[in-house]
């Protein structure tokens, strides 16, 4: 597999995870429907989608940046990637065991949608799901350009973090947005309960799988 | 936890109206002299069933003296908002507080109403220790879990500190703690409800425990010492943002019934009695530009009566007050039902224009002086009291007891448990069903009714009806 295709697949994974998060009602698209219907204006629906995307973006970049910064410690790169994989797996296991209602989230007022979106994504480890993909991208980029000064590498990693977060949040809001608009215009609110599946276990398993792939891919690369 | 949302959860009130109809009702039974344990009766309300109108199952509690009053579900349609974070709860557990003992029972209805059984008992000490409140009353499921209003504060007579609302975990049923961060001038409590997407709550005032536990205190009533204010709250900030005084003569502001469609920022409130005229009244409250308002929009006059026909409490007035003790709003926000417990009348108002309720239907049954019989021929003592409307708005059920000690003052001959049903006409109007007349076990009185799959005073909807 050439380096270009590895990066290509990883970017596809960034988009795919964005769509996955976006279509999940738990990440907020029904709130955009509610906002549009409450004010009887589609503009309110789009405003809500924008706030949801913003919150989701901040939740992503907030997780990726520290990992990006750590990755400049070239000597520890493998250890960091392995540790990151285990953190993601641990988060998955935690969510699998602790399936309690996160009451703190319920205290966020409906008017603060961006904050809610950030908190919901963070509480469900949505950002962590991106970490192994992101670290893979950092490494792919690094192999592409060879060894560089730490500062240059750092800048590269940070730009990648921003790009991954933007692309992911865009895919998330586009997929959730399409559903929200379809429900608002044609399908009606009945679709909300019809389309909602309990993804708690699948979601937690996704984290474990992504973390696992992250660790295994390090082994394969050697 | 389920894989799909509970089929009795509906995004909008309109969808809830289209759902399959109820086959069973849950009705609370209380032993007024505390000689028997209180219970939950499951009543068959399917007209095609051979047991139509009969108690087909009952759950009898292990304690005496709880005094059952109101109750509610662990989860409702509000779970369909992602903001609440618990979409896969089941509408499965009934939370039944003892208004006198402060004990709370959690009843599991898994397997159907006729399989209902006790799941958990929360002892009064847990409520006292974790909340400082006593005498739990109204139950609503909402963002943080189960919200429970209380009528008493701490101490043996419930006057050590104001009563308020506390929150219970909706999965473990652990009592978490007080709801209020800033209660403002609120010092009495009765009912509460909210508009979830608009993020406000409305609460009302009945009285403090010494004013009701041993019976109504006439001196307190005539000096206007019962509750007469309505409080508006920032729901998630848990802060009282506005208090409206209805005027001291408007004694006992009880049920709060917001429009079910969250687009509508209004609701209703029933006031038991105006001490200057003995009238009962309906009030409409609404929010405009962030401010709340409340106005009297309908009154019900007292009926003249001969001294000798009246219980000692009312002899001096030579009149029967209507005593508006419960109101309930249909899911389409069209008809408001008003129980006149004193005069023995169930009224139906068309509230299409919420500022101008129009009388659309009425039936008489019971009453202090009228004593109207059931059309099936049976006695009906007391008056129409706790009223519940089917989700589709076509059937209305009600019982006859208000509160053990008050029953005895207004209806000294006793108020044996009754539950009746009326059918609603296409464009309003109500008629009693002569075949529906529930016989309860001896010695019990009946209070609140809940319908299988939700009814008009349980579910909060997070999406507008379109």
UniProtKB/TrEMBL annotation, chain A:
The keyword Nucleus does not apply. Keywords: Membrane, Transmembrane, Transmembrane helix. The chain crosses the membrane at residues 6-24, 45-67, 79-97, 113-137, 157-184, 196-221. The keyword Amino-acid biosynthesis does not apply. This is Arginine/ornithine antiporter ArcD. It comes from Phyllobacterium brassicacearum.
Automatic annotation (TrEMBL), chain B:
Its EC number is 1.8.3.4. Signal peptide: none annotated. GO terms for molecular function: methanethiol oxidase activity; selenium binding. InterPro entries: Se-bd, WD40/YVTN_repeat-like_dom_sf. Pfam families: SBP56 (PF05694). Pathway: Organosulfur degradation. It catalyses: methanethiol + O2 + H2O = hydrogen sulfide + formaldehyde + H2O2 + H(+). Belongs to the selenium-binding protein family. This is Methanethiol oxidase.
